[in-house]
Queue: 2 jobs
Job 1
Amino acid sequence: MKDERILELIEQKNYIELKKELSDMNEVDISEILEELEQNTSLLVFRILPKDVAVEVFAHFSAEKQEEIISAVSDKELKFILGELFFDDMIDLIEEMPANIVNKILTNSTHEERVLINQFLKYPSHSAGSLMTIEYVELKKNMTIQEALAHIKETGLSKETIYTCYVTDNKKKLEGIVSLRNLVISDSDMKVGDLLHEEIIYVETHDDQGTVANLFTKYGFMAMPVVDKEHRLTGIITFDDIMEVIEDENTEDMQRMAAMTPLETTYLDSGVLELSKQRIPWLLVLMLGASVTGGIITKFENLLSTYAILMAFIPMIMNTGGSSGNQSSTLIIRGLATEDVTLKDAGKVLWKELRISLLVSVILGLVIYGKNVLTGKAGFMVSLTISLTMGVIVMLATIVGGMLPLAAKKLKLDPAIMAGPLITTIVDALALVVYFGIASTLLF
Amino acid sequence: MKDERILELIEQKNYIELKKELSDMNEVDISEILEELEQNTSLLVFRILPKDVAVEVFAHFSAEKQEEIISAVSDKELKFILGELFFDDMIDLIEEMPANIVNKILTNSTHEERVLINQFLKYPSHSAGSLMTIEYVELKKNMTIQEALAHIKETGLSKETIYTCYVTDNKKKLEGIVSLRNLVISDSDMKVGDLLHEEIIYVETHDDQGTVANLFTKYGFMAMPVVDKEHRLTGIITFDDIMEVIEDENTEDMQRMAAMTPLETTYLDSGVLELSKQRIPWLLVLMLGASVTGGIITKFENLLSTYAILMAFIPMIMNTGGSSGNQSSTLIIRGLATEDVTLKDAGKVLWKELRISLLVSVILGLVIYGKNVLTGKAGFMVSLTISLTMGVIVMLATIVGGMLPLAAKKLKLDPAIMAGPLITTIVDALALVVYFGIASTLLF
């Protein structure tokens, strides 16, 4: 393994060979190795890195490691890092650091940088504005291709991407984009304006990052421009940052769907206290919510003591109902997240789930009827009661599961909370009411 | 809306204006509009499109629309489409089409294309080989930058990406990559070999698409080379295809986690029968699995008839246990999918979940004890029974939930099936055994 070779060279203090090995490596991998080293050693290796590599490695560090490095480096070193860091990484950094480190960063920034930082910190988290960076290539319509390429050659090294270039007018209003591909394959005396792509898809600073991610996935864009309300270009978002957003949004959705508050970091990096805190409040709500079902059972104690066999089927009815509701709610939550389903599809969803639930409930009802008759565990009327209940509750659960995420969306809540655990709690209470209602009617 | 304007122009048969409007639009949007039109109209509009746009629009069509178009166009038109289609889209197309359409495609392909198609169809679905395309820029070490740029200018239009170029030796072995960025900003008399980045990250044809997606997310790559066992370059994968893979993999995981067979297409595009088929087998398994809990209840009928109050807490205990198990299994399933958690972390996970479950179970046990005492619903010993059961079952469920996905991974099963619904069924049975065990001990 490469990692072991690196650790060996550090051990041997063979810094010349170390520098050589590191220079070939991907910055993400270097940052992973340094992350594991203790403070002094990692600072030493960090300082061995070529300066441009060091900055990229720094951008990939965890907040803890970044704090460690900033505390340890000189003002001169810090100034260099801050100067080279892409602006979106700079904003991420400032948002993560404690006050004393933020102070150190701000004192080592220029006045212009501080003004920009203040402006960017105002964008809501999870908005397009909070993801964008300002290192893009800006061209003018009347430039020739040759001039444009010369401009890119001169400034390209410090840009987040040079593959899509942005054309603005003298008021900074976004006029369109030109791809480097088109610049490279076109005649050098043509004008940028001739290659201009004007009907472009852009986002506004306050758009939600989930919406931005869906646009990237839909169109396969490498970068997207972000404009303010006056259609002035304020930044760009690149696909690599969006890939992280997509991963994070999916992780967060899954955590919410399992009744947990989303974690700040990965599972293994989270502490026991943090992991407990994300779970306990939800479990308390669900546990106390489930006491409703207990109340219903107590109310029907007489029925249950006459027909003790009814008891035995309560878990099965509640479980199957919960699972059906979980299935439909999962499909709708996911559909809403990928924007394949929208609020105006509510009628379609209802109609679809109605038909599905009818089919599913008939089949489940028949199977459980068959099983009860074959095993001879329950008499005719009890078997009928159970099958009917199963049918009705699967229908109800499927429809409730399909509709609640849409209702949440309508109320501007996160649809992901209307998932399995909450649905189960609701369906459980419904199931008992239906069960005892049917039993009371049929058995007395 | 743009869409309405387009439909209006079609209605008015104003094809000149229509052509103009369409020429500004993104291909993805055009394909969405055509998707909704009936066969003859969509074919008419498809033929109005500039040829290069038409091919891109075609690539974004659903399989049904592609079949419709291929059936309708002339051999000459089909030859053009096939010639311009990127190879990965061509393979996707062939995989989706019925036999008669595949025949029409193959008769309109060249001999070389047919050989390549046959080779590519052999890669397993969900492998890197099934995602890659062959339209990449290939450079040689001894080219000058000027020669390289001239080569790109000449061939670039037909390449999936020109932003990363691949350097191979005369046996097609991959030697490294050069970015267009570096080519553009370097002196034109330097050699490609001088800019060569040799320590690159690549995948092999049989690597799983999930692994490939994780590499893209981790490193933020725009494209990745795919090599065969002899390290020969066989194709490249681009980020836009990976974004779709990520979305699909997440959707599939969520569907499996909710006990459903993954759908082939989106929720709204799936039929009622299809949606029912993905749910029914799982529900049957879960329903019949839940009959175990029924058996346990029947066994302890005497206990329940003596202490009727015990009944009322069964749903709460089962539900809270199920939710705890669902929480930990979700975290581990997601961790395994993003490769933040691996099999060798099993010990760490166990130790973490043990401590979390201890904390959670103490708190839940105390809260439910307090509630029972305050409401005076249950006596001291019954309250103690319930709290102890709650504590034990939350611990068991959390650990079972954390461990089962790892066990599935170890057995090369998909960890996503070890989620909520299955965990709930297992935990329900455990919960009853623990509950009645503790009750029998404490109450008699």
Note: Chain A touches chain B through 114 residues (CB under 8 Å).
Job 2
Amino acid sequence: MIHELLHNKKVILASASPRRKELFALLGINAYIIPAEIAEPINGEEPQVQAMQNALRKAEIVKNKVDKDAVVIAADTLVAIDNHILGKPLNQKEASRYLRLLSGNTHSVYTGICIFYNEIANINYEQTLVHFAELTELEIKSYIETGEPMDKAGAYGIQGYGAQFITAVDGCYYNVMGFPVRKFYEMLNAILEKEEK
Amino acid sequence: MIHELLHNKKVILASASPRRKELFALLGINAYIIPAEIAEPINGEEPQVQAMQNALRKAEIVKNKVDKDAVVIAADTLVAIDNHILGKPLNQKEASRYLRLLSGNTHSVYTGICIFYNEIANINYEQTLVHFAELTELEIKSYIETGEPMDKAGAYGIQGYGAQFITAVDGCYYNVMGFPVRKFYEMLNAILEKEEK
């Protein structure tokens, strides 16, 4: 299990996200938090590629600040619909536009993960499908009034008022929260197995 | 949205579950908590029927303690595999047996919901599929050592160490947490629409 694999390791979480911190606590991982601030310009790559690139950049920033034997963990989560990445909305108008795009549709959430250990960056990603109910204009207006959409990628929070608009997810739920727990466990197992050989 | 529909209502959550309480807070619902303790004997009915029966029994207990115009909300969540309900394990041996049943398999989580309002019990349920990774005997042993399985239906907690064993869910995630938010919103909309006519 994750907490056993990391038991005697120095673990660094390269993220300021309170939800990732919370998840690490749930999993019994003792980690130092060293946030990595990067600009996240949207380039022409596919969403999963950008999520992995961003995770790598975050890990790169932090790995130089810590001991060589530390395990540095970075992640980057993106919301995409039809391969278009939806960042945080710039204003209420953009939030409405995003919510109309998501309404009655299925979008993807991608998280890129980078585990930097023993001078090697191990990178992978997870994709989860999220099915949104059809929203009325009144619901979109009411939801924006709660303030929740404004600082969220894709203009919604699955852990909040946004929960009532999600009819189903298909895949890893924790990925939507920002950290695909099962994928992380599988990566860690593979990395530490390599180490034993 | 839910918090608007319930804004001027007296809302009673007939549950002691801290996760349901937490979800209500996330959704901006101000509710009084009045736990309803019921025995939950497993009978021959299908799991979704038992979950709805139990939700109804909880609502029935609480509705007599509160004002007539209150909205009483009760829920009951069951874990089932091949139509067999898995309750809380009696001991570590039973926990191992449950975890071996879940390993590499897909099981269902059912939540029955009862909304008692205007002297009418409105009842429905939600089903979510949960896909479990294959567990090694060592993982089962380690997981039981964390203590987490012992007070959980089905011998696992999706919000804890158990998260690393879940490869995917298929359906409403909040249902697995004990309260299907979207279904609840739909029920509430239907009930209060009826009221307006």
Note: The mean pLDDT of chain A is 94.
